[in-house]
Write a structure and sequence with these properties.
Layout: E1 2-6, H1 13-22, E2 26-31, E3 42-45, H2 51-57, E4 65-68, H3 84-104, E5 108-114, H4 143-158, E6 163-169, E7 171-173, H5 175-186, E8 192-193, E9 199-200, E10 202-204, H6 205-218, E11 223-227, E12 233-234, H7 235-246, E13 253-254, H8 256-262, H9 264-272, H10 280-286, H11 295-300
Parallel strand pairs: 1-2, 1-4, 2-3, 4-5, 5-6, 6-11, 7-10, 8-13
Antiparallel strand pairs: 9-12
Length: 304
């Protein structure tokens, strides 16, 4: 198939581009920069937030699938403002990409979502499934972030003539993500709460990419899939494992109020949120299973 991939040069876009090519798909890499590196792909240069420029850029192009993996995060977000552009890409950007999908004749549309959309709260020990409420406002500062995830999902689920699928990823690590963790650990800039923080469901970027390839063929229209590994783990334990494998200093353990002061959004994710998310639906319907089932295997995996 021919795939128009938005976000081909991002953290997940790079392994996804590689996985698509390995599976024999032709990739059109949608990027803002004409000098972007997207090996094996044809560049399509446009800013998705500029509707007219985007439609001009795809004029005369045909594609079977559009995949939306755009974010504006070059590093982990610390403050709520760090999420604003990504929110815009999930709202307005999705609207424009759906127009582009119709222009190129694509019927399938996959969009990136994230498991924190279930709510930045303590969900207890019961595994969350796709049947649980998603994107529900709770009256806090994370509401615009949750609303943006809900927006991208609802837009693709209800778009006329489009088979829309949402991939609800766990927290990313591995490859460039783990490189960033290790660099921050070396510099003493990756603290965790004294109790280790909340439990999170994670996914290695390689497995996240493989899930998207599987969903292109086997995902059901109008459905969301949790893309997480088999073992949720606390932030403290995840970062401590990175430090152990890399041979660097362990994460600094600080009082929660200090982390909230310096990085309020990160604190909402690391301290206020605790969740265990089920991947049973993705395994059953997509024929996908994580090759790195827990953080132990994933942190030790090559980063190249």
């Amino acid at each position: 198939m021919r795939v128009l991939l938005a976000g081909a040069t991002g953290a997940i876009g790079r392994p996804l581009l590689k996985a698509l090519r390995a599976a024999g798909h032709e990739v059109l890499a949608l990027t803002r920069g004409a000098t972007a590196q997207a090996p094996g792909a044809r560049l399509v240069v446009a800013d998705v937030l500029d509707r007219d420029a985007l439609l001009r850029a795809v004029e005369g192009i045909s594609a079977d699938v559009v995949i939306h993996q755009l974010t504006a995060l070059s590093k982990p977000p610390a403050k709520y403002a760090d999420m604003e552009m990504t929110n815009t890409l999930r709202t307005i950007g999705t609207t424009h990409l759906l127009e582009a999908a119709r222009a190129v004749g694509a019927r399938r549309f996959l969009t990136q979502s994230m498991v924190p959309g279930y709510g930045y709260v303590d969900h207890g020990t019961r595994p969350l499934t796709e049947a649980d409420p998603f994107g529900r406002p709770r009256g806090g500062k994370v509401d615009p972030i949750v609303a943006a995830m809900r927006s991208t999902e609802q837009q693709v689920f209800t778009a006329d003539g489009i088979e829309g699928i949402a991939l609800r990823y766990g927290a990313f690590y591995g490859l460039t993500g783990s490189e960033g963790f290790v660099a921050a650990l070396r510099n003493g800039k990756l603290p965790v709460p004294r109790d280790g923080g909340g439990t999170m469901s994670w996914i290695h970027l390689t497995d996240a990419a493989a899930a998207a390839v599987a969903a292109m063929d086997k995902g059901a229209a109008g459905q969301a899939y949790n893309i997480v590994d088999d073992q949720p783990v606390t932030w403290g334990r995840m970062f401590a494992e990175h430090a152990r494998v890399a041979g660097t200093r362990p994460p600094r353990r600080l009082p929660g109020w200090v982390i909230r002061l310096a990085a309020p959004y990160f604190a909402a994710l690391m301290i206020d949120t605790s969740m265990r998310v089920s991947n049973a639906k993705a395994k059953a319907e997509l024929g996908w299973t994580p090759t790195l089932p827990t953080y132990r295997e994933g942190v030790r995996a090559p980063r190249g």
